[in-house]
Amino acid sequence: MLSSVSAAQTTRLTPSAAPTGGAVRVQPGAAPEPASTTVTAGGAIEHPGCGGYVTARPQLVLNVTADAPWLRVYATSGGDTALAVLAPNGHWRCADDTYGTNPAIDGRFRRGAYRVWVATPTAGATASAAVTVTAQRAPEGVAAPAVTAAPQDAFGTAAGLAQQVLGGFGGAPATPLDAVLRQPDAGAANLSPAQLTQLSELARAGLNAQQLQSVASGLTGAGGAQPTLSPAQLTQLTQLARGGSGPDALQSAVSQMLRGIGTAH
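Predicted structure:
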């Protein structure tokens, strides 16, 4: 369901409009915890950044009152849904099929208003979904939805791996990619699923954690839409890494590559 396209197409959405499902005040560390709101997922507009179909207006606004080092936002529904969250800085966070067909987004949330869309895979289809925000990590306190489908390939489903690692579930294999995702300031939570998949491909090709962090920094520093690298460019980065190029050189190489490519559709 997830894809990445030009940020210019987000004009089809109206983030500043009143949410269809209301607003939730999120006070990190304050009771009661967690907070849950029922919304109607789906709509007629294909989400330009995360895929799936939504309404132009967000379903929910999360007003985070203070910087939170870690929050989990997840949706539970009887149908297949995905999450698209627009952060105050204009960056999108996307999730799909994190726990079976239920999506979740984990990570650092800065103070501000986060606009939430809950998507369905079919245009016009709707579903009732409960959107929950919590600062409690499973298995402590309130548990997240049960994982009903384990990834067949932890690297091939990098987005799911990222959610599990950042969410503190453990059990994931110790890899260089894990080391990057565990860093609280790595910015990996802001990478698109396509970008996380490309990081996993580079990890399989032998790049170490420091080299992967350089690539991640180059991708997140691109601004605007979330561009991806071509297969030839991934091969070139692998060759540079194997040839002894340092982190700064790799990040510079990524930046130069991104100046000459579009975004994945």
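Summary: Residues 7-146 form a domain with the Jelly Rolls fold (CATH 2.60.120.380).
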